[in-house]
Design brief:
Layout lengths: L1 H21 L4 H8 L5 H22 L20 H17 L5 H7 L3 H19 L13 H6 L4 H5 L3 H22 L8 H21 L7 H18 L14 H19 L1 H12 L5 H18 L3 H8 L5 H23 L1
Helix pairs in contact: 1-10, 1-12, 2-4, 3-9, 3-10, 3-15, 4-14, 4-16, 5-6, 5-12, 6-11, 6-14, 11-12, 15-16
Length: about 350
């Protein structure tokens, strides 16, 4: 048990250090991405997902992981992926408002960014609301054809009827093209051009370390669901109510342990690399995220992430790396929600 906890904390610490090294945790980097003024975040994201895909494929070949694509998330409003779409839109909108994502909020708190504390509080509320009420919205696709159930969640390779290797090569090539286009066409930023690429590769490397150490892929929004489970578990114990049947008899703490490691790693990197982080210090102070925006955005992004079945790390870095259709839908919806809200706010 102690060994498992230590391994989970270490995996989280490595991920937290990589997030901090990439500078993607800075609120200004996230909000500028949603404003389409700075593509640093997208570069990190693409580099992390591409390197993560290579790590997952290599480990699966050698039998070191059985991690696969995520299943579609649905509430049966307008299709099998409707919850991926709606949840992704909410996640992206929350990121625009708060200048954070479910993973980077822990790095923000660890490095002392003021808005991060309010975002974290809102995110905790989002987890409580999700586990208490929102999780009832989701349905299992019981009417799915038997063939789909036996072959697993839909992927790029299954839909195009190509091999996993062919899909991986196409994905890596697409990621490389996107990174090159950003480098050639996107506005230059105050950060060195190597930072997003190196940061993304480091995050991809922590995918491998997480799978080797814990047999679990990167993902952080589930920690807030665990917090919500523990809240309602305590509530039921105190009140004697058993109305919330979605609460496990004994909630898990694995994801919470992981994000504790994320904070430890972010804090440690900040202490050891003060000169490196001085480049991002000015960015972390501007623009200022108000307490109410941070809180509301945090709540919105966690509710959306759990509705979609994953967040920027769960769907973006891990899910897209397995070529899962649900993850591509969620991430596309996330960017649509974030950039759409940013454009709306810019006009009003």
């Amino acid at each position: 048990m102690a060994t498992q906890i230590a391994a989970t904390v270490l995996a989280g610490a490595l991920f937290g250090a990589a997030l901090t090294a990439s500078a993607v945790y800075v609120p200004a980097v996230i909000t500028a991405q949603m404003d389409l003024q700075d593509f640093h975040m997208l570069e990190v994201f693409i580099a992390a997902s591409a390197s993560s895909a290579l790590a997952i494929r290599a480990l699966s070949i050698y039998g070191r992981t059985s991690f696969g694509p995520r299943s579609p998330s649905t509430i049966y409003l307008f299709g099998s992926y409707d919850a991926n779409v709606i949840g992704g839109l909410l996640l992206g909108a929350g990121m625009t408002i708060s200048g954070a994502c479910p993973g980077t909020v822990f790095s923000q708190v660890a490095t002392g960014i003021a808005s991060g504390f309010f975002t974290l509080a809102g995110a905790v509320l989002g987890g409580i609301l999700w586990t208490g009420y929102g999780s009832r919205l989701k349905r299992q696709p019981s009417s799915a054809p038997a063939r789909a159930a036996s072959s697993g969640p839909p992927t790029i390779q299954s839909q195009l009827e190509i091999s996993t290797t062919q899909a991986l090569v196409a994905y890596e090539g697409s990621c490389l093209v996107i990174i090159l286009l950003i480098a050639m066409l996107a506005p230059q930023t105050s950060l060195p051009p190597r930072v997003p690429i190196v940061g993304g590769l480091l995050i991809g490397a922590t995918q491998a370390s997480s799978l080797l150490l814990t047999n679990n892929p990167l993902g952080t929004s589930s920690s807030f669901e665990e917090i919500g489970h523990w809240f309602w578990y305590a509530w039921q114990a105190l009140t004697g109510s058993d109305q919330l049947r979605s609460v496990p008899e004994k909630p898990s703490t694995r994801s919470m342990t992981f994000v504790i490691g994320v904070m430890v790693g972010s804090w440690a990197f900040a202490q050891l690399a003060t000169e490196y982080l001085s480049v991002t210090k000015t960015l972390s102070e501007s623009p200022s995220i108000s307490a109410q925006n941070a809180f509301a955005g945090g709540c919105m992004m966690i509710f959306g992430a759990r509705l979609a079945g994953g967040c920027t790390s769960g769907h973006g870095i891990s899910g897209m790396a397995t070529m899962g259709i649900a993850s591509f839908v969620s991430v596309a919806s996330m960017f649509a929600g974030g950039t759409g809200l940013a454009a709306f706010l810019a006009r009003n």
